[in-house]
Model the fold of this input.
Amino acid sequence: MARSTASLCCAGLLVGALLWCGESAAQSVPASSPTPASKPGAALPAVRWDSLNGEQKLALGPIQSIWDEQSRDQQRKWLQVANRYRTMKPEEQTRLHARMADWAKLTPEQRRKARENYKSVKGLPPEVRDAQWQNYQALPDERKQAVKDKAEAAKQASQPASVTQRP
Done:
C-alpha cells in the first residue's frame, strides 16, 4: 500500500514540477496565426509553434516536437511556464529543460496517465500528500530503486519497438 502510494505521489510530484503553473498567472498568447485546434471539440484554436515569440520558443524548445499534439488548454499551461522562464535561475532553467525533454519522450498515453496521477495527488489534502512524500523519503534506497526500476520497466514495455523485423 505504502509502495503504490509513494509511486503515485512521486509521479504526481514529477508532473507537478513539469507543469508547475499558477492558475492565476497572466499569460500572453500570440494573436497572430492561430489555427483550428487539432483535437475535435476543442473550444479554442490551438497555437501554432510558428506564432510563438523568440522567448517562448527558447523556453519551450524541448517540447517543440509535441507542441502540435497539445490541446489548447495544455498549450496555455506551457505558455505560463514559458512566461516564468526568464525569471528562473540558470540551474532551474536547465532542470526545467531536462524535465521537459523527458516529458516529450513519453508517449501520449504515458503523458495522460501522468496527468491523471498528478490530478489525483493534487486532490489530496496537503497533510496526506506530505505524509505520503515523507513515507517515500523514508524508504531504504533499495526500495526507492525498486520503485524506479518498476516505472522504467513499465515505460519500456509501453514503447513501440524501434526495430522492425523483416520476413
